[in-house]
Write a structure and sequence with these properties.
Length: 139
């Protein structure tokens, strides 16, 4: 009788431990988000673009714009080297928005597009109802 009770206790404890480890592993795997190749390459290229301008200290407004443009150019070249390009769907999506922004802010259409480009090229995670700037190139 004592053997049966200890065997049942052992099985119950073992079952509880197995259940605990399974639940714990499910929670850990669902809380960790898988980093996509785009996110990984994007993070690398952002780091490279930051290093490209690390020694520059802008004094006047023109130099601040030049610094931002240099960072964007380095990022764009880095992403191209890693197999990503501008997504035509992104361009199609932002053109109407750029026209509205251009008229509201009294700027050119090209400047509105460029402002949106510089902001969106830093987004590497899928956005709801908005295409990503980057698209993997077909090689």
């Amino acid at each position: 009788m004592k053997k049966t009770i200890s065997m049942i206790s052992f099985v119950v404890i073992l079952g509880f431990l197995v259940w605990f480890f399974i639940i714990s592993n499910l929670n850990q795997s669902s809380s960790k988000q898988e980093i996509t190749q785009l996110e990984h390459m994007g993070d690398e290229c952002v780091g490279i673009s930051e290093k490209a301008v690390i020694g520059m200290t802008p004094v006047v407004e023109f130099q601040k714009l030049e610094l931002l443009s240099r960072k964007a150019n380095v990022l764009k070249n880095c992403m191209a080297d890693r197999g990503f390009r501008e997504n035509p769907a992104w361009r199609k999506y932002v053109e109407p928005l750029a026209k509205i922004n251009a008229s509201k802010q009294n700027i050119s259409f090209d400047e509105a597009i460029e402002t949106m480009r510089k902001a969106d090229m830093l987004l590497f995670k899928k956005q709801p109802q908005r295409p990503l700037y980057w698209l993997a190139s077909k090689r």
